[in-house]
């Protein structure tokens, strides 16, 4: 079970979160986060933490980042009203359109930000991990843009399942290394990227794809993705006439959701709801619902919630959406859940696919299956809260999911 803070403790910890004191000097959000890494990595992480603190406040760096975001990524992304869904659901539904960002999802916000930072830190090459290939494509694109050599580690099983993304990365100039060890998927790819980084932590920069890993990664990724929530908050006030009653985002590693939620945390009347992959159901191994079904533990450098068995063995995960298929989650989400500020729910594979179809038919948007989990959470909530104003993070586009959709929604229909 998750840690639940007592009311007084939760209040005190939330005050510190709102004062910007988390992560603290040890890289922790309350009990979560920190650094569980080999000694050899500590100097590199210290250097990175110092760099993050310096550059993310440097006006020149921020000007360069903002220029890339507006001129190359396509920010600000629009806020779209969803009129047909709104009348169907009896609510006012708004979509934050990260699907319209370059390379088709929010991942580029993080990739270009970290690649710029790597340059400032004097790195000569970038390594990254990728599962479904979306983070690998975003990283390869950012590295091409900035003239940095890029190596992407990808599980051998994933290379096969996601062949088009392997091709995209190669076209963008990256070297793709299939990982045949371990589970041959994302977890093994992260281990391999870490190993590469340890070999030359000064010349190489490890560009991680979600708000996970040892400090300062969860903090840095949150800062880079918070552009989503900052824009959306302003757009809601301007276009929708006020703040939303509830905000929904899907949670894999937790980066689009923490980026969407963070700028709303101080708005106590705004409900924040993360939606995880409920997969085939609640049994261990059938889902990726880390926060709703997991327990605290250490994975890949940080203390957070995990899907593990009673002996602490990390569990295989399952989701119809490759981007949500990971047994860990951002430590800040674990904290926000324990403090009661954010609620977490899950949507099953079938529910997500149904929501994806509904969004296509009503709003003319083919969303990523990941993002459809967030719609599903929003639909269930709207049914219980008629008339409310709802903001949904549409984290990415669904073109990449066509092979899965052909096997599921379109089965027998082509
Ligand atoms: C990768 C991905 C996710 C999940 O990652 P988070 O770090 O949880 O945001 C969600 N949606 C899309 C479209 C993705 O590509």
Strand order within the widest beta sheet:
3-4-14-9-10-13
Could you say what the CATH architecture of the largest domain is?
A: 3-Layer(aba) Sandwich
CATH class of the largest domain: Alpha Beta
Write down the oligomeric state. Answer: single chain
Rounded radius of gyration (Å): 20 Å
- In percent, how helical is the residue content? 40-55%
DSSP strand count: 14
Number of domains as seen in the coordinates? 2
Name the overall outline.
globular
The computed structural class is alpha/beta
Q: In terms of per-residue confidence, which ranges show pLDDT below 50 for 5 or more consecutive residues?
A: none
Bound molecules: pyridoxal-5'-phosphate
- Alpha-carbon distance between the two ends: 45 Å
The main pleated sheet reads as:
6 strands, mixed
Compute the number of helices: 17
Fold-level CATH name of the largest domain: Rossmann fold
What is the overall pLDDT average? 96
Report the sheet-strand fraction: 15-25%
Task: Note down, in words, how this protein is organized.
It contains 17 helices and 14 strands. The protein is α/β, with parallel strands linked by helices and 414 residues long. It has 2 domains: 29-68 and 107-221, Rossmann fold (3-Layer(aba) Sandwich), CATH 3.40.50; 74-105 and 226-407, 3-Layer(aba) Sandwich (Rossmann fold), CATH 3.40.50.1100. A 6-stranded mixed sheet has the order 3-4-14-9-10-13, with helices on both faces. Helix 10 (217-225) crosses helix 12. The protein is globular, with a radius of gyration of 20 Å. The mean pLDDT is 96. The site of pyridoxal-5'-phosphate has 19 residues, from helix 12 and helix 16.
């Amino acid at each position: 079970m998750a840690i639940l803070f007592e009311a007084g403790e939760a209040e005190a910890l939330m005050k510190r979160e709102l004062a910007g004191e988390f992560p603290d000097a040890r890289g922790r959000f309350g009990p979560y986060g920190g650094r569980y890494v080999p000694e050899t990595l500590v100097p590199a992480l210290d250097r990175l933490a110092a760099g993050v603190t310096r550059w993310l406040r440097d006006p020149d760096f921020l000007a360069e980042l903002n220029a890339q975001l507006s001129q190359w990524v396509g920010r600000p992304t629009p806020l779209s009203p969803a009129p047909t869904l709104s009348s169907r659901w009896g609510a006012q539904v708004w979509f934050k359109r990260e699907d319209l960002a370059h390379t088709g999802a929010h991942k580029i916000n993080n990739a270009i930000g970290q690649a710029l930072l790597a340059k400032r830190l004097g790195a000569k090459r970038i390594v990254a991990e990728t599962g479904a290939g979306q983070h690998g494509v975003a990283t390869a694109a950012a590295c091409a843009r900035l003239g940095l050599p890029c190596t992407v580690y990808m599980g051998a099983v994933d290379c096969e399942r996601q062949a088009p993304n392997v091709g995209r990365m190669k076209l963008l100039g990256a070297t793709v290394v299939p990982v045949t060890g371990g589970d041959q998927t994302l977890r093994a790819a992260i281990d391999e990227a870490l190993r590469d980084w340890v070999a030359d932590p000064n010349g190489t920069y490890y560009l991680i794809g979600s708000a996970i890993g040892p400090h300062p990664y969860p903090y840095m990724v949150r800062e880079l993705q918070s552009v989503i929530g900052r824009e959306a908050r302003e757009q809601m006030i301007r276009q929708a006439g006020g703040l939303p009653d509830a905000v929904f985002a899907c949670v894999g590693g937790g980066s689009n959701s923490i980026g969407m939620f963070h700028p709303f945390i101080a708005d106590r009347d705004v409900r924040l709801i993360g939606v995880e992959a409920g997969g085939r159901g609640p049994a261990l191994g059938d889902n990726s619902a880390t926060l709703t079904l997991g327990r605290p533990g250490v994975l890949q450098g940080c203390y957070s919630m995990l899907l593990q068995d009673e002996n602490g063995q990390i569990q295989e995960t399952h989701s119809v959406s490759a981007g949500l298929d990971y047994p860990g989650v951002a430590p800040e989400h674990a904290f926000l859940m324990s403090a009661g500020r954010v609620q977490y729910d899950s949507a099953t594979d079938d529910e997500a696919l149904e929501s994806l179809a509904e969004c296509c038919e009503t709003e003319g948007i083919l969303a990523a299956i990941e993002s459809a989990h967030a719609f599903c959470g929003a639909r269930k909530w709207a049914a219980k809260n008629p008339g409310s104003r709802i903001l949904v993070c549409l984290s990415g586009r669904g073109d990449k999911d066509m092979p899965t959709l052909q096997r599921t929604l379109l089965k027998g229909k082509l």
